[in-house]
Amino acid sequence: MADGVYAGRADRDAALDRGWLLGHFKDPADPRHCAELEIKWGVHPQGDTRAEWATGEIRTALLVLISGRFRMMFPGHDVVLAEQGEYVLWGKGVDHSWHAEEESVVLTVRWPSVPGYRVDAPKPD
């Protein structure tokens, strides 16, 4: 990256860090380190569901459907993304969860990039 340009492949780079391509959690020497926002390339098999609801959110988020059928759940209503390019945006304080109704790929952008927001997958018994 001597010239200030980084080129990669979302599917390959995302697989190295739970889907995340950019954010505060990248090494500061990595050009993908950023305190302002986070970008995730999420690949979800059919039936994949968030391990627990996100509550007390202090960020804003935008989720764009690349492929598949993806349900975003919010208190009182759901948003189903079924066509490429459909998106949903939610702000601070909005609890949420999600479910992949079909094998899905989604692009998520969150801002700001805040340490401490991580939900690990459930450990197998």
Folded structure, characterized:
- This protein has 125 residues and is mainly beta.
- The protein has a single domain, classed as Jelly Rolls (Sandwich).
- The protein has one helix and eight strands.
- The strands form two sheets. The chain has a five-stranded antiparallel sheet. It has a three-stranded antiparallel sheet with strand order 5-4-7, with no helix packed on it.
- Strand 4 and strand 5 form a beta hairpin.
Tally of extended strands?
8
Poorly predicted sequence stretches spanning 5 or more consecutive residues: none
The fraction of residues assigned to DSSP E strands is 35-45%
CATH fold label: Jelly Rolls
Distance between the termini: 43 Å
Helix content: under 10%
CATH class: Mainly Beta
InterPro entries: RmlC-like_jellyroll, RmlC_Cupin_sf
Protein name: Signal peptidase I
Layout: helices, strands, pairs:
Blueprint: H1 10-14, E1 20-22, E2 38-44, E3 60-67, E4 70-74, E5 77-81, E6 87-90, E7 97-100, E8 104-111
Antiparallel strand pairs: 1-2, 2-8, 3-6, 3-8, 4-5, 4-7
